[in-house]
Amino acid sequence: MTFLFAFIVGGLICVIGQLLMDVGKLTPAHTMSALVVSGAILDGLGLYEPLIDFAGAGATVPITSFGNSLVHGAMAEAERSGIIGVLTGIFEVTSAGISAAIIFGFLASLVFKSKG
């Protein structure tokens, strides 16, 4: 059942993104930003964690989870370190994923030729 819920929730997030581009005529960058912000807002309201508990990877894999991670890290660190924790918490939680994207992107650029 967990796989079904993950598929449905992840699919709905993707459908929302596709509708924003097709019906709303938003660019992919605007759509991605809207999904990140919506994930951040849902986490700020305390609604994203129950969604993760319900759907697992269906809620943690899409881009909305990045917004969730930013707010979640900022709020957790703010409780420990005050207002400075808001800034450090954002980087602490997301640094591994961002660092991996940069490193693997660089390695891919060494292996493959650009067509542009």
TrEMBL record:
<dbReference type="InterPro" id="IPR014204">
    <property type="entry name" value="Spore_V_AE"/>
</dbReference>
<dbReference type="Pfam" id="PF03862">
    <property type="entry name" value="SpoVAC_SpoVAEB"/>
</dbReference>
<feature type="transmembrane region" description="Helical">
    <location>
        <begin position="83"/>
        <end position="112"/>
    </location>
</feature>
<protein>
    <submittedName>
        <fullName>Stage V sporulation protein AE</fullName>
    </submittedName>
</protein>
<dbReference type="InterPro" id="IPR005562">
    <property type="entry name" value="SpoVA"/>
</dbReference>
<keyword id="KW-0812">Transmembrane</keyword>
<keyword id="KW-1133">Transmembrane helix</keyword>
<keyword id="KW-0472">Membrane</keyword>
